[in-house]
Write a structure and sequence with these properties.
The protein is built from 9 helices and 3 strands. The chain has 222 residues and is mainly alpha-helical.
């Protein structure tokens, strides 16, 4: 099988890093395959240097997770991520983040917080793509150890859909600065294990992100 380098953008969210499923998902999240693109099994098998069966199994799994659609006489395609998809993703994240973060505020270790601070330091000088990779790692750190694995997986899938929709669009500098300040405030509130303060900042952070992407993508890319 092809030895493919992991994408830093999505690797924190993918546990099956050695599978064809992960390779295809990486390529969707990085806009190698974009919304509506056909996914031809024979070409994918050639690209990933594998047989047809693993490709079919991966596409079936991706179909079940909402990343791929399969229609008669059309075959498999990357799901069409439209304005309504973006709206739905942000609404789901706004419901899930407070639930998952509440547990993290109470249970996180000093090492977790130090890792978040390290990621934040890297964000200060990161490029646009590097920033999104670091932001993904920052948020993944707050949810990955939660005991409710179904909630974590739902968060993961929606976060990956968001990455796929944003993969070929640049963040502007003002939104990056605003987001970094929101991350700083989250860490500060975490030090005091102040659940209410952390959740207020997190809701503000998700809301601001949703406003930015809804405005930008609806007017320019959908």
């Amino acid at each position: 099988m092809l030895e493919q380098k992991e994408s830093p953008l999505v690797s924190p969210l993918i546990s099956e890093k050695s599978t064809i499923y992960a390779y295809i998902l990486n390529d969707i999240a990085n806009a190698v395959f974009q919304s509506g693109d056909r996914l031809v099994s024979t070409k994918l098998a050639e690209k990933y240097q594998t047989s047809i069966n693993p490709i079919r199994e991966a596409l079936k799994q991706l179909q079940g997770e909402g990343f791929v659609t399969v229609e008669p006489n059309s075959g498999a395609r990357v799901a069409r991520f439209e304005y309504n998809t973006l709206r739905d993703v942000f609404e789901i994240l706004q419901l899930l983040e407070p639930y998952l973060m509440s547990w993290f505020v109470e249970e996180h270790s000093d090492e977790d917080r130090h890792e978040m601070e390290s990621l934040l330091n890297e964000m200060e000088t990161a490029t646009d793509k590097e920033y999104r990779a670091l932001d993904t790692q920052f948020h993944w750190l707050t949810v990955k150890n939660h005991y409710n694995r179904k909630a974590v997986d739902l968060w993961r899938r929606n976060r990956l859909i968001l990455l796929a929709m944003q993969s070929n669009v640049r963040l502007n500098a003002s939104r990056i600065r605003q987001s970094i300040e929101e991350h700083k405030r989250i860490i500060s509130a975490l030090e005091n294990r102040d659940v209410t303060a952390v959740l207020d900042i997190m809701n503000e952070h998700i809301g601001n992100s949703g406003k930015y992407w809804t405005k930008y993508l609806s007017s320019n890319h959908m």
